[in-house]
Specification:
- This protein is α+β, with helices and mostly antiparallel strands.
- It has a single domain, classed as Beta Barrel (OB fold (Dihydrolipoamide Acetyltransferase, E2P)).
- 29% of the residues lie in helices and 31% in strands.
- It is built from 2 helices and 7 strands.
- Strands 1, 2, 3, 4, 5, 6 and 7 form a 7-stranded mixed sheet that branches.
- The protein starts with a helix and ends with a strand.
């Protein structure tokens, strides 16, 4: 039991030593202005009141290195639905601008709003 406790305590303490450079720190509600997919199958989009972050380019990206193919497909479907119906969406992203992919702000969540 003592070994188990020491092992769990070690894992708990080590979790504070691991720093994450990216985080879901902000939300924005808006409408989609445009959606683009380039040759590398990366999805980019911009919203009407695009926030300013430390990323170089002023739009969002779905990072394929951090998002599964099935999740990318769901996000894309939600973006197309929001664009075609002019429905507002809520987007979760890294507001600090630390998490950029291809110089754009990475998103973590999308929600279609009524």
């Amino acid at each position: 039991m003592k070994k188990l406790f020491k092992g769990l305590w070690f894992v708990y303490l080590m979790s504070f030593g691991v720093s994450s450079h990216a985080a879901y720190t902000a939300n924005i509600t808006s409408t989609i202005l445009w959606i683009k997919i380039y040759n590398n199958d990366v999805i980019y989009f911009e919203v009407a009141n695009q926030p300013t972050t430390q990323c170089v380019t002023k739009n969002f990206v779905i990072d394929p290195t951090k998002t599964s193919a099935s999740q990318i497909n769901r996000y894309y479907s939600m973006l197309l639905t929001a664009k075609s119906s002019k429905t507002q969406i809520a987007i979760g992203y890294d507001g600090t601008g630390v998490d950029c992919f291809n110089d754009r702000s990475v998103i973590y969540a999308i929600e279609l709003l009524n």
